[in-house]
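Recap from last week: sequence in, structure out.
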Amino acid sequence: GPILSLEPFIFNIGGNSTKFAKITLGVEVKDAKVMEEAKKMVPAIRDKALSVLGAKGPDVLMDINNRNNLKQELQNSIKTLFKEGTELKSVYITDIIIQ
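Predicted structure tokens:
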């Protein structure tokens, strides 16, 4: 399906003000009609994603073995915004930088 690329998220990591992360996400939806709906929901999608990402510590974000779990958690959170659970196909982490 079509993929909506979101602007990068830049946030403090898990309450630690000395570290921050920049993460870019792509959200794959079922079809072009759902894509039009998703474009209108970008602020809500970003809010849901930031709620998940901001709660994670640097160890979780940096560990490649946790990526699939993180993507699944993001997908579960974001799909609540869609009318049907099948409209959101996948969430991709396309860029991640921790500093």
